[in-house]
């Protein structure tokens, strides 16, 4: 529910969430978010593993470049012929 000018309410009514979730998914998400210490531990472990994987990629002789943002990208010096 929102209180605003009609034009603003019209815009709100046009907005659609990127995806719908059911009640079970919603309950599981709320349960997961209620355990912030567990989530922080998982995030820490994932980031540590990401650093380890990047370090290992950099050791490989055929990896030319490793970039990281949300994902890890790496460029190879060799053509694998997979395409």
Residue ranges: pLDDT <50 for 5 or more in a row?
none
How can the largest sheet be summarized? 2 strands, antiparallel
Oligomer: single chain
Helix content: 40-55%
Number of discrete helical segments: 3
Overall average residue pLDDT? 82
**How much β-strand is present in the residues?**
5-15%
- Would you count the extended β strands for me? 2
Task: Kindly report the spatial arrangement of strands forming the biggest sheet.
Answer: 1-2
Distance between the termini: 52 Å
List the helices and strands and how they pair.
Blueprint: H1 6-14, H2 23-34, H3 36-59, E1 63-68, E2 72-76
Antiparallel strand pairs: 1-2
Task: Write a brief caption for the model.
The protein has 83 residues and is α+β, with helices and mostly antiparallel strands.
Q: What features would you describe in this structure?
A:
The chain is of the alpha+beta class. The protein has a domain at 19-76. 54% of the residues lie in helices and 13% in strands. A two-stranded antiparallel sheet has the order 1-2. A hairpin with a 3-residue loop joins strand 1 (63-68) and strand 2 (72-76). It is elongated. The model has no long low-confidence stretch (mean pLDDT 82).
